[in-house]
Amino acid sequence: MTDRLIDLLLRRAPRERLLLGLLVIAVLPTALWFAVLEPMAARRAEARAELTEVRALQDWVAARAAEMAALGQAENSGPAAPIGLSALEQSLISADLRPAVTGLANREGGGIDLRFEAVDFAVLMGWLSRQDPGWGYDIAAFRITRGEELGVVAAELQLVPQV
């Protein structure tokens, strides 16, 4: 193999040999860069970006956990008295959810059944998160079904007084 290479180079003019040498010297590092080093650098940059995202997510979760712990301490003063059907209806009216309610009824034992046929998911979840800390009810059953339109759901809730 080396004999053939030497024979090939000896048949070339000195200028051609110099150009072939420069070509090998320039092409070899370039090929090494594009074949090995550049993909490794790209993967490293992606890994650093993912690490930054994971750390940001961990910080966010820790902040939400601290908020929930603070809320939990506030709630540990004992169960709140249930707000009642009319107060619940007033909160639905203030959140512009009353037109979406298809069923609102008292249950035996002081609970409430609440049903929505077609309601915006984000609005419903926002209303629930605002009501839950102090409304005096626990959610005994919650069923949510995807609606025909994007972001619209059907939901059923069974609320029972906190004990």
TrEMBL record:
Identification of the protein by name: Type II secretion system protein M
The biological processes this protein is annotated with in GO are: protein secretion by the type II secretion system
Location(s), subcellular: Cell inner membrane
**Segments crossing the lipid bilayer:** 18-37
Query: What are the annotated GO cellular component locations?
Result: plasma membrane; type II protein secretion system complex
Q: How does it sit in the membrane?
A: Single-pass membrane protein
Name the Pfam families on file.
Answer: T2SSM (PF04612)
Keyword Cell inner membrane among record annotations: yes
What's the source species for this entry? Answer: Thalassococcus profundi
Has the keyword Iron been applied to this entry? Answer: no
